[in-house]
Specification:
With 91 residues, the protein is an all-alpha fold. It has one domain. The protein has three helices and no strands. The longest helix has 30 residues. It is globular. The chain starts with 12 loop residues before the first helix and ends with a helix. The relative contact order is 0.16.
Length: 91
Amino acid sequence: MGLRLVEPAKYSGQAGVRQVRRLQCELNKALDAEDWDKVRRLDQTCALLIDRVIIANQSDTQAIAEALNELKGVYASLIVQCKREVASMAH
């Protein structure tokens, strides 16, 4: 049994966009399930992932824009859902 190393994640170009999409999918699932602890953890992970994608794509602003544009919709949904939660607590 030999030591097997895990390849480092790739963040440049479409690989970075795919990473953001995977996180976006997980975030949507957590929102649908109203799993707020998972939403919080994924949100923290998202900030780190976006930093890495931006660093890896400094010369490819299209990849950065694509990743961030899609993610923007997820956060818009999160804001709407949080407003509903707050409103339901007030009544």
